[in-house]
TrEMBL record:
Recorded superkingdom: Eukaryota
The species this protein was found in: Conger conger
Keywords: Signal
Protein's recorded name: Glutamate receptor ionotropic, delta-1
Gene3D superfamilies, per database record: 3.40.50.2300
Cross-referenced InterPro entries: IGluR_D
Signal peptide region: 1-20
Amino acid sequence: MELLLISISLWILQCNLVQADSIIHIGAIFEENALRDEEIFQLAISDLSLNDDILQSEKITHSIKLIEANNPFQAELPEIQSIVDPVHKNCMRA
């Protein structure tokens, strides 16, 4: 259960109609067999979301992309772009 790549990319977007002052999107790329790493990542996101001391008015979104084990080339631009797209869609929809 090896974490291949985690892309903790923080984009703070100002969207006028979103209830939060800003949106922080955190994306991760895991190998398919790294289920425990995926669970830990989701628990960490939940802890951040529930902690008012860290985030008073920010909204956290996250995405997880699973890739084939031992195929690092699968984590190139198209997969990373799939992490970025939900952030842009959330902002444009608002």
